[in-house]
């Protein structure tokens, strides 16, 4: 059969069993049974069994398996069995954590998945792209990702960027012509392909191939699944972990040699060295980061910030500049028309009179040169435009009837570079083009002016009056659109070349009030050492008026226009950006330069964007933030985070979450490293003091693999506090493991190690090595469980409410305490765990030593805090 691009629209529609009205839901379900979901299935989901077995790939686990085998061969079946049980439980825990983390990431992906506008059951609906099927009619406009391969059936100046497929970076102009010859992909101008996006214009297409049958699907099938890239923190910790592992292995090797030299059996010396290595190597570091980050993203999604790249969560904590759009992000994007200005008069809406010819003409133009709709009271479209038809309907003018009277015969769509749009209509026997847009832009193209006495040449004085009116509207924070028109002598396809020789008609001023929460969010930013910057396409005076109201700007000298930075060199711009808080009349290219200038000054920049041209700036920013409601699919695709409520305050909240999550990861790392260090110190101390080894291998495995990971994860779930916003942003290139941090870990590890040794000595003197070792084991295990509460904060928390505010940590503590208490007191366990069964007094002693470590560390924190305050 012929390829779709060589068939007429009618042939294609028949072939995919569809019509211009699209499919019904029933037909779509039926079609989906045949062609499946519209998604690329290249990256297959890992099965749970595979995840489980992957837990055994770890170097340490392999050593443990070897150790179990050796113990078994040497006749110590019990030890072998314990090791196998312990690593199996550990693998099960690991599997649960991995599956949960993956689930949360997948649900996040679903939330941020692309959507498409499609005709279903006769109406236009927005659906997740994966629900589309062959035969669906999709509607395309600038900024849309193309969700599947399709044949165009309607085209209004559609241009598509197909670089992902063809490598061609220039956008391709589309048309409806049926092609006769076989041509390569890039020349199939009547088709659109999944994976590309609309840069300009509008169109309609019928889907011909979906999912893996699309051109990109055919390539994707060849590609391996791409896994999530590691975050800088994970890389940092992994490197640290590797270095530490080498040190530990050398240390354990030496210890092994000394033990053998002292005449210990090779088998047991080996087992001990292995257990110590397991106890000391912080293998869980980088997976803790993944778990904490992925759980954190769920909280953020509930708070309207969807994370698309895990790195963003980390980055958010060090954001120092937030560049935000104005319209809709800092303001409500609920426009209401406040004033008309026509025939030289300012008319408040309360005094509008649609019977006045000038006002009526302006109102008609505002309905015709407008893409929004009002069907059964539901307004769809850009709020700037819906405000215009809303006003008209209040005066008894229905948009639909005016549009039926003067149908649209051509158009040049709005784009934020030109800051205007044009439409062509047949009115009173003439081809009339209406152009609406930014006042300054249109005045440049205007030659005549409409007055009650007819049309005449526009004078400089007229232009100055109009500009002054514009200025005074803007100073009130109003957004102003100018309306112009012209006659087109011969009907032809409209282009930007027609946007000149215009006749000025009037201005319409609208109010878009700031969001209530913007002012507080801006204040919060400033308190947290973050500089909020407004970047907008709107007029400078309007933008500055709004910025002043919400606290971004103090003085008009902090505002500039895109044109002001146009001719600056990069070095000049670098010196200029700190002085500016509001950039008005900005084009997407200016946005990239502003981000870059800040980045060159060492700042971490979050930047919002919504339009198709914003994608490069969103990619350039450290945290690209796309608008979930008004944003185009392209912007969402380029962003690291999507705001489902388009609200500036949500970005600030996300920064707070990012800082908290980073802090919680620090708590977890501190917990793991200091506990491990305590264990090593105890062993080292015993070895230097010529004492028997304080732990049996199984003790170390028990602590490290069973009772240790839950408090660490629980610390990652510490309730968030707004205190993090009292500090300046953390420097992005500073390693998490600062000297100060390692110092604290060392000191706390020392306290735990010292208490363990004291406990060991107590037991040793009571009843020899076995009781000593039981005491040491119990104390180390409990001290580490208590230590979870130490790691909750840099400050002492023991007598505060905060001590009890993490139910996960309490749960992990209780579970761990029950486990260790059972091991120490149930006689059946004593052989397996190489302990002496303790009586109540002895158990009390073990608990006391462990609790003492908590008290001492809390005291140290208190002293440190007092010392700092001085
Ligand atoms: P922000 O960048 O904060 O979202 P914005 O919405 O004003 O602000 P753009 O959408 O780039 O930015 O619009 C730039 C200018 O183009 C506006 O100030 C206005 O003069 C004009 N404009 C906006 N929307 C339309 C429209 N639908 N039709 C014609 N002109 C428009």
Describe this structure in words.
This protein is of the alpha+beta class and 870 residues long. Among the domains are: 277-305 and 654-869, Calcium-transporting ATPase, transmembrane domain, CATH 1.20.1110; 315-332 and 515-652, HAD superfamily/HAD-like (Rossmann fold, 3-Layer(aba) Sandwich), CATH 3.40.50; 336-511, Calcium-transporting ATPase, cytoplasmic domain N (3-Layer(aba) Sandwich). It is built from 29 helices and 26 strands. Strands 10, 11, 14, 15, 16, 17, 18, 19 and 20 form a nine-stranded mixed beta sheet that branches. An eight-stranded mixed beta sheet has the order 8-26-25-24-9-21-23-22, sandwiched between helices. Strand 17 and strand 18 form a beta hairpin. Helix 5 runs parallel beside helix 10, helix 20 crosses helix 21 (588-600) and helix 24 packs across helix 27 (739-790). The model is unreliable at 223-227 (pLDDT under 50). The structure holds adenosine-5'-triphosphate. Adenosine-5'-triphosphate binds next to helix 13, strand 15 and strand 16. Adenosine-5'-triphosphate binds at residues 325-327, 382, 384-385, 414, 416, 419-421, 436-438, 481, 536-538.
The distinct bound ligands, ions and cofactors come out as: adenosine-5'-triphosphate
Rg value: 34 Å
The percent range for strand residues is 15-25%
Oligomeric description of these chains: single chain
CATH fold type of the domain at 277-305 and 654-869: Calcium-transporting ATPase, transmembrane domain
Please describe the biggest sheet, giving its number of strands, its sense, and whether it closes into a barrel.
Answer: 9 strands, mixed
Q: How far apart, in Å, are the first and last alpha carbons?
A: 85 Å
CATH homologous superfamily classification of the domain at 277-305 and 654-869: Calcium-transporting ATPase, transmembrane domain
Percent helix, as a range, is 40-55%
């Amino acid at each position: 059969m012929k390829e779709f691009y060589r068939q007429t629209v009618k042939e294609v529609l028949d072939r995919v069993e569809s019509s211009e009205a699209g499919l019904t839901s029933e037909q779509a379900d039926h079609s989906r049974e045949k062609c499946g979901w519209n998604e690329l299935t290249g990256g297959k989901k890992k099965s749970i069994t595979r995840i489980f077995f992957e837990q055994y790939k770890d170097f340490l686990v392999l050593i443990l398996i070897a150790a179990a085998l050796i113990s078994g061969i040497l006749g110590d079946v019990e030890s072998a069995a314990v090791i196998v049980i312990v690593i199996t439980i550990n693998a099960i825990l690991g599997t649960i954590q991995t599956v949960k983390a993956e689930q949360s990431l997948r649900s996040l992906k679903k939330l941020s998945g692309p959507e498409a506008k499609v005709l279903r059951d006769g109406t236009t609906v927005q659906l997740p792209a994966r629900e589309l099927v062959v035969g669906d009619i999709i509607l395309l406009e600038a900024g849309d990702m193309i969700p599947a391969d399709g044949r165009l059936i309607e085209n209004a100046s559609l241009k598509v960027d197909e670089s992902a497929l063809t490598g061609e970076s220039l956008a391709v102009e589309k048309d409806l012509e049926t092609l006769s010859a076989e041509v390569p992909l890039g020349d199939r101008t009547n088709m659109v392909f999944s994976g590309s996006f609309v840069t300009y214009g509008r169109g309609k297409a019928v889907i011909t191939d979906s999912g893996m049958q699309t051109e990109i699907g055919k390539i994707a099938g060849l590609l391996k699944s791409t896994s999530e890239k590691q975050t800088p923190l994970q890389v940092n910790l992994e490197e640290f972990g590797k270095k530490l592992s080498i040190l530990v292995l050398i240390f354990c090797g030496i210890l092994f040699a000394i033990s053998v030299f002292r005449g210990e059996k090779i088998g047991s010396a080996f087992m001990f060295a292995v257990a110590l290595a397991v106890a000391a190597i912080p293998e869980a570091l980088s997976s803790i980061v993944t778990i904490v980050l992925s759980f954190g993203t769920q909280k953020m999604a509930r708070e309207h910030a969807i994370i698309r790249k895990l790195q963003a969560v980390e980055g958010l904590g060090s954001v120092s500049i937030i560049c935000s759009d104005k319209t809709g992000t800092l303001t409500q994007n609920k426009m209401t028309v406040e004033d008309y200005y026509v025939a030289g008069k300012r008319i408040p809406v309360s005094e509008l009179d649609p019977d006045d010819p000038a006002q009526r003409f302006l109102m008609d133009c505002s309905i015709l040169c407008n893409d929004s709709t009002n069907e059964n009271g539901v307004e769809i479209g850009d709020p700037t435009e819906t405000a215009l038809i809303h006003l008209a309907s209040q005066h008894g003018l229905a948009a639909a009837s005016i549009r039926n009277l003067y149908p649209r015969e051509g158009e040049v769509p709005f784009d934020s570079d030109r800051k205007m749009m044009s439409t062509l209509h047949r009115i009173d026997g003439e081809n009339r083009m209406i152009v609406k847009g930014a006042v300054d832009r249109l005045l440049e193209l205007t030659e005549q002016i409409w007055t009650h006495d007819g049309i005449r040449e526009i004078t400089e004085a007229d232009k100055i009056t109009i500009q002054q009116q514009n200025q005074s509207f803007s100073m009130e924070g109003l957004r102003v659109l100018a309306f112009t028109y012209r006659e087109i002598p011969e009907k032809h396809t409209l282009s930007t070349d027609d946007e000149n020789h215009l006749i000025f008609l009037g201005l319409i001023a609208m109010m878009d009030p700031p969001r209530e929460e913007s002012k507080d969010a801006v204040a919060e930013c400033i308190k947290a050492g973050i500089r909020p910057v407004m970047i907008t396409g709107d007029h400078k005076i309007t933008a500055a008026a709004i910025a002043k109201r919400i606290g971004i700007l103090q003085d008009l000298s902090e505002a500039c226009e895109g044109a002001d930075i146009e001719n600056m060199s990069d070095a000049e711009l670098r010196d200029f950006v700190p002085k500016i808080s509001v950039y008005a009349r900005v084009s997407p290219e200016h946005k990239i330069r502003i981000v870059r200038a800040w980045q060159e000054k060492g700042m971490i920049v979050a930047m919002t964007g919504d339009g198709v041209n914003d994608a490069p700036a969103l990619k350039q920013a450290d945290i690209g933030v796309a608008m979930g409601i008004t944003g185009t699919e392209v912007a969402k695709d380029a962003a690291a985070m999507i705001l489902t409520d388009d609200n500036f305050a949500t970005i600030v909240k996300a920064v707070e979450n990012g800082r908290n999550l980073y802090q919680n990861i620090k708590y977890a790392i501190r917990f793991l490293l200091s506990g491990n260090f305590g264990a090593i110190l105890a062993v080292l101390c015993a070895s230097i003091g010529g004492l028997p080894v304080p732990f049996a291998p199984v003790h170390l495995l028990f602590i490290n693999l069973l009772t240790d990971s839950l408090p660490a994860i629980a610390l990652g779930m510490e309730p968030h506090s707004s205190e993090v916003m009292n500090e300046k942003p953390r420097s992005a290139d500073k390693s998490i493991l600062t000297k100060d941090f390692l110092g604290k870990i060392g000191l706390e590890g020392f306290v735990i190690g010292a208490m363990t040794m004291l406990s060991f000595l107590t037991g040793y003197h009571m009843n020899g090595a076995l009781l000593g070792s039981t005491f040491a084991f119990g104390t180390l295990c409990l001290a580490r469980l208590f230590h979870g509460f130490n790691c909750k904060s840099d400050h002492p928390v023991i007598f505060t409410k905060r001590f009890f505010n993490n139910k996960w940590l309490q749960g992990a503590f209780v579970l761990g305490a029950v486990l260790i208490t059972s091991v120490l007191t149930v006689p059946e366990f004593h052989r397996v765990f190489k302990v002496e069964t303790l009586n109540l007094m002895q158990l009390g002693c073990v608990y006391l030593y462990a609790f003492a470590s908590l008290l001492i560390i809390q005291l140290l924190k208190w002293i440190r805090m007092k010392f700092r305050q001085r």
